[in-house]
Amino acid sequence: MTAHRTAAAAALAGVVPLLLTAVTAGTAQAHGAPTDPVSRVAACGPEGAQRASAACRAAVAANGGSAFDQWDNLRVADVRGRDREVVPDGRLCSAGLEAYRGLDIARADWPATTLKAGARFTLAYRTTIPHEGTFDLYLTKEGYDPAAPLRWADLPAKPFATATDPEVAGGAYRISGRLPAGLTGRHVLYTVWRNSSTPDTYYSCSDVVLAGDKERGGEPVAEQPGSEPSAEPPSDPVTAPTSQPASDPAVEPATSQPPAAPGSAPADEPAGQPAAASADGAGGHTAVLLGGVAAVLALLALGVSAFFRRR
């Protein structure tokens, strides 16, 4: 009987870690996004300082009322460098994901950061789960209209800065480069992070205002008055164009530097995570999984008890 009891206890002890691992894997859906210049999803996320802005409120409304709780999970699987084929025009900021469609609304009052055209700058990309991969940074061309949906034709064919496997320090990657010269006004800094350790590619839009030589960079920009912008994302995206501009800024290799702002502690994650789920679904899934674990453990306990009584 002692041998049977030992075997049953060992079996129960082996099942518990497996069930807890399943719960942990179901809730590990966090990766990263730019925080300086602040991206739309980070600005409007639960920790975003601008989440109460008119643009963020309109984005949540266009999102069907769903907040951007998973601000660091805007990713698409198996793109494999085919960004302009997979992500449709007018849906660049959401990467075509329904859970983030509010980020695509065309407005001229998105929270923005002031930068200086032609100057060196450093992008801080906060990471909650580090991955290996390459960052490509694009800046919209002169003539970009912030009141119109962002299209691939608004971006040059080549990034102005790129970095592969920059180190994580203080919870963020730091990607440095020189901004293209000759640009003024509102623009979008578009960041593409192609993972090599997972099949995922991350996309993000950071709104910036390019100032003249006498103006300081890095200042937050207040909402600008004007005609009431649209609160709806584009509904009929078209195929991404393949045409390229006549001249593109040269790609400048980026360097990694320790970030100033701390972030969450890095955690390991297996490759092959699925594409982003609904922004408000993680809590419900966790509750269901925990309930399932409790039920299975109760059944196992009853079975072991009945087994011992029969013996």
TrEMBL record:
Annotated signal peptide: 1-30
Keywords for this entry?
Membrane, Monooxygenase, Oxidoreductase, Signal, Transmembrane, Transmembrane helix
Protein name (record)? Lytic polysaccharide monooxygenase
Alphabetical list of InterPro entries matching this protein: Cellulose/chitin-bd_N, GlcNAc_Chitin_IntDeg, Ig_E-set
Q: Where is the composition biased (Low complexity)?
A: 253-282
Source domain of life is Bacteria
Q: Name one GO molecular function term.
A: monooxygenase activity
Answer whether the UniProt record assigns the keyword Oxidoreductase to this protein: yes
Q: Where are its TM segments located?
A: 287-308
Every copy of the Chitin-binding type-4 domain together lies at 31-208
Question: Which stretches of sequence are listed as region Disordered?
Answer: 216-282
